[in-house]
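## retry 2 of 3
previous attempt timed out at serialization; input unchanged, resubmitting
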Amino acid sequence: MASSDTMQGNRVMEGIHFMLGNYAVVEGAIAAGCDFFAGYPITPANEISERMSQRLPVLGGKFIQSEDELHAIYSVTGASLCGAKAMTATASAGYNYMQEGIGYASAVEIPVVIVDVQRCRGENFATQSDVMQMRWGASGDYEIICLAPSSVQELFDFTVRAFNLAEEYRSPVIVMSETTIALMRERIEIPGQDKIRVFNRKYTELSPENYLPYKADRTGVPEFAPLGKGYGTIYSLNPHDERGSIDWDPDVFEKLYSRITGKITENRDRICRTKAYHLEDAEFAIITYGSEVRPSLDAVEMARNSGIKVGLLKLETVWPVPEKDIRSVAENVKKIMVVEMNIGKYAGEIERLSTGQSQVVRITKNRGIVHAPEEIYKAIKEVCL
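## retry succeeded, writing output
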């Protein structure tokens, strides 16, 4: 249960806490301004709904217990169009059911945050098997932003950032959580409200007569229409022109999707974040993300202590792909080892970007448990010696 402090009207729980990962997601969302949540029960994400049901009503927000995942995703898209900062949370099987709504949000450019606490098929064991579905699950041409936290602190920090990115780029943003960190308790520090950057969507100042809901400036992101002011915007999944009118014309269709995808890809360098460890003199490198960062860092230290010059590139953004940083690693090391908790999915992206530069070796595990440092260290010795 939440502490008595959380039941008070404190939007930002400033201070040092020993907190469950799923609770850190909630606190990050609320600190970023979340005022609407809809979700359907599913383990191991239920603590997010539980805490949201306690926190949001006290703060004047809305919590909805959905009847299923479709209700959840369409509730948050509708709430967002009505001006709310909205979020849902689910786990792998539930994420499957949300694809239609995510595709709608991408096409109509609705800022929402979706937390997917990945689990093995039908069981609450650790995995990263949803990583490709997060990019390619919905129909149609679109880009997605997906963040990969590796600790309870990052579940807070990255959830705040997810809301900011959603608002800035008018796009769904996925927080790629995992059973491992979602159900872990760790020390986290929540800063004061004045130290938390919060980005709010931009509303047009044009009159209803002059406003074009899908006409964007150089950023590629259209401004929203203010609510209740006479703007008759149509939010249709169908191909639509700058007025929002349904218009099946090849040129209109191409222009629309070029802009929807371009607003993400053309801002890739602003969106993508990575973190480098020991890469300055590295002859070999590990590239990994999420909870696999933790044992990988331990294995790198073990390898360094035995004289193997290994570095690590941590992917904090997995979609869009941080191509520049991955290419830079590939150009400067002999071999890259990709550590994943699946059958080897994101490794294909690393191989694509490393072709002709560096050999890529897959270190994968799909047994419902994160790699042990010793397993990765053993693989490093096999690859590098």
